Amino acid sequence: MITGLGAISAIGKNVNETWESIINCRSGIAPMTVLLPGELRFKNAAEVKNYDPSKYFSKKKLDSQDKFAQFAVIAAEEAVADAGIVWTDELRRACFVITGSSIGGQDAQDKGFQDLYIKKQPSLDLFTIPKTMPNAAASQISMLFGITGMAFNISSACSSSSHAIGNAYWMLRNGACDLAVTGGSEAPLSFGFLKAWEVLRVVSTDTCRPFSKGRQGMILGEGAGMIVLEPMENALKRNAKIYAEIIGFGNSSDAAHITKPAQRGPELAMELALKDAGISANEIDYINAHGTATFANDPMEVSAIKNVFGEHAKKLAVSSTKSLHGHILGGTGAVEAVITVLGLQNQIMPPTGNFLEVDPECDLDVVPNAAREGKMNYAMSNSFAFGGLNAVLVFKKWEGE
To answer: How many whole angstroms separate alpha carbon 173 and alpha carbon 215?
Structure first.
């Protein structure tokens, strides 16, 4: 059961702000304010607005945490407080922390390279390694709450946090733990990393328009999403607030190309997620699509959905909230999971923002430009990554006992 949610991104510094932006289709994409030491082909990103880390962390804590870990801790703290967890030594041993981050601490790494190669400094910041390591978020969360159970990070590009949530769900379901704090984070807006994306020519020079005719590509974003998972009997016993159930996880690998998606991989992940959930394709009401707004992904994903869902695809609502919070890379699946769960709880289908015109290759109901009320019992969230790594989550509306 999902009993706690936490989020921080360009569309909100907490869950309430995030959901308010979703229901109002308010995009967080804007010109970058980060100070960069050079020019970029693209100027826009989905930054966390007016972020002041000193409001969340002491100077001592900031000295050892890169921004991606800060975001993860902020979201985890919100999720754990939301769940009303009362810690005991026994629960701390029985709790797992599983995070997803593709790239770790890019700010610290970028600064280290500049200090070393440009400024010619003889030594680097003492905390360069602790800041850059992708497991830093999991470690910081475990230390914050004194969690002594298993803690680790999954790095599978843009599927990282969906893989983290799915594996946490499987471990909880199999009895390996009694509680899980899981999700993911990313802070990719550092100059060297942005220059690397620039040469791929998949980042839009205006905004993110998934599934729309006239789209130019993705927009990079930053932030984190975290959820608290626990068995139904434990949640009911302590009278916890329950948002929704996670009931299925499917994953696959394309085994085809390092950057170009192969349709059969995403199809297989969706099929396996449905099988794991024990439901038919016709029971899904809404899909939070991977929907990057790239020329390669969007038609492929639509075609994959049509193949998996058949005639039912015409009845599905399929939206991409990356149009609002940007592509948070390893953290994006977790933010989208939070949004999907809130959609189920509130019976509101999140929108695809910035939509201009129907693309004949993407002719599904993409909930354009406005959130929509609608009956939803089951929802799916898709994450497809470079390297052909696919992760799909299935959620069920909580009906109560």
So the answer is: 40
Query: What residues are annotated to the active site?
Result: 158, 290, 327
Instruction: Write phi, then psi, for 80 (nearest 5 degrees).
Output: -70, -40
Q: What is the pLDDT of residue 138?
A: 98
Torsion angle (degrees, nearest 10) of CA 394, 156, 325, 260: -100
How many Cβ atoms from other residues are within 10 Å of residue 231's Cβ?
Answer: 15
Domain check: are 170 and 192 in the same one? Answer: yes
3 state DSSP class of 324? helix
311 and 170 in a single domain? The answer is no
| Token reading at 131 | 């800041």
Range 280-284, long-range pairs (CB < 8 A, 24+ positions): 281/308, 281/309, 281/310, 281/312, 282/309, 282/312, 283/377, 283/378, 284/309, 284/312, 284/316, 284/378, 284/379, 284/380, 284/394
- CA–CA separation, 351 vs 361, rounded Å? 19
Question: What are the residues facing 126 on neighbouring strands?
Answer: none
Please tell me the pTM assigned to this model. Answer: 0.97
Mean pLDDT of 243-263: 96
- C-alpha angle with apex 48: 206 to 71, nearest 5 degrees? 135
Amino acid at 361: E
Asked, for residue 34, whether it belongs to a domain, the answer is: yes
At residue 35, does pLDDT exceed 80? no
